[in-house]
Amino acid sequence: MSNQTAGLVCAHHHLYSTLARGMPAPRNESKSFIQILNNIWWRLDAALDEEMIYWSAKLGACEALMSGTTCIIDHHESPNAIEGSLSIIARACNEVGIRVNTCYGVTDRWDDAGELHSKVSPLSKMTDAAKRGLDECDQFLSSGGVGMVGVHAAFTCSDETLQAAAELANKHNVGVHIHVGEALDDIQAGARLEDLAKDDWLLVHTVHLDRQLKGRIVHNARSNMNNAVGYAKPSTKTNTVLLGTDGIGADMVEEARLAYARLREFDVTQNPDTVWSWLENGYELFPDAKNDRVTFNYDFADSPWHAAFTTNLQAFDVEIDGQKVLANCQPTRVDLDEVRAKSAEQALRLYERL
Description:
single chain; alpha/beta; TIM Barrel; five-stranded antiparallel sheet
């Protein structure tokens, strides 16, 4: 047994949500998933600007590193700051020293008049905002950026937009990164994506997916519980399963512990090896992370049966590509105090807009 592990992979993150902690409560109480999106997350998306995106990503990257996570698969949305947003996220993560795969989550929920719609007809025309989102993915990938083509979810996209996203992904030989069946509002996702999905797609959540789709499934246990959308039962799926956080940090050992507790509640015959295999499946997308080295404050950090029941595991040192990017719990490439201070300033700006 060892106090070292390979680098950990967060297979679904929203780095822009890092600034959301501590934001004012929404004006209206949210009693459903759609109300949570309308009252909180879609308002936050619309309030973001370039400075907020940069410092949110930078703080999120630092916190991921301090948790032993060396790779993040990010899903971004900022309808009033689309162009260049992916390069900003990549730059922030690169400055910290962490690997990132990012995408812009296209959606038709913002129409050409700037009005917000909770649900979009499959027969609707693609909006200008969706076209701009696809263009951002195209530009970022064409310039050598590491990413995918992002889609918010089928229920906020027309069929035209879903088809265009699939075609753009094929053009760049990457997958589509999309929320699927997170809540009952997206119950038609399976039928609408069945002829589009491919093995390299990332299907996030799949709580209410009603059929088999090609692609890898990303399980986000904490987020699903927080939004009260139900349990995805990932152990019953035949797809490869990965673990994400859906924007609630990037502490993947903690996420795995919670995912294991939720799994045991569903099926008491399961053991920690199942969930830790979901963590290891992240190496299919970030194989270089296997060569990263994370040193924890615990001698059995590499044992699922220990880590599943041991709280407060802390990463002390992290090496990526042979370079020490975390030493004695502190990032080596950036000033953590400055990142926290600048992020706090941007958080206040965000709260004022909300």
